[in-house]
Specification:
- This protein has about 110 residues and is mainly beta.
- It has two domains: about 1-55, Double Stranded RNA Binding Domain, CATH 3.30.160; about 65-105, no CATH class.
- The chain is built from one helix and ten strands; from the N terminus they run ββββαββββββ.
- The protein has one helix spanning about 35-50; strands at about 1-5, 10-15, 20-25, 30-35, 55, 65, 70-75, 80-85, 95, 100-105.
- The strands form four sheets. It has a three-stranded antiparallel beta sheet with strand order 2-3-4.
- About 10% of the residues are buried.
- The structure holds zinc ion.
- Zinc ion binds near residues 77, 78, 96 and 99.
């Protein structure tokens, strides 16, 4: 079973009147095609539903919280807590130093 970790769907104009909606990477991806963006997205959704050997997973975002005057972000993948530096203006994403996964932060 392949797992596609995805936060976005990419739209590509493949040619005159052919739109491709793709999720994933060069290594593992699923694509849907159509003559319009809605058609391509519907085809992609249908292919994701039918895929038995590939699952698409949307990573959760980290939610900031304050404890003892410090702001923390727990990695949603492994639970490792990250301290947000006091001088940081606003953290929008980070790479977990424990598991190495990229993590988006809730606004
Ligand atoms: Zn982690």
């Amino acid at each position: 079973m392949d797992l596609i970790r995805a936060r976005t769907v990419t739209l590509v104009l493949e040619g005159e009147g052919v739109v491709r909606a793709v999720v994933g990477t060069a290594a593992v991806s699923l694509s849907g095609f159509g003559s319009s963006v809605p058609d391509a997205l519907r085809d992609l959704a249908h292919r994701i539903d039918r895929a038995e050997d590939v699952k698409v997973w949307v990573p959760r975002r980290a939610k900031p919280y304050v404890r003892s005057g410090k702001t923390f972000l727990d990695c949603p993948e492994c639970g490792h807590p990250h301290v947000v530096p006091d001088e940081a203006y606003k953290t929008i994403a980070f790479i977990c130093e424990q598991c190495g996964e990229p993590v988006d932060v809730e606004p």
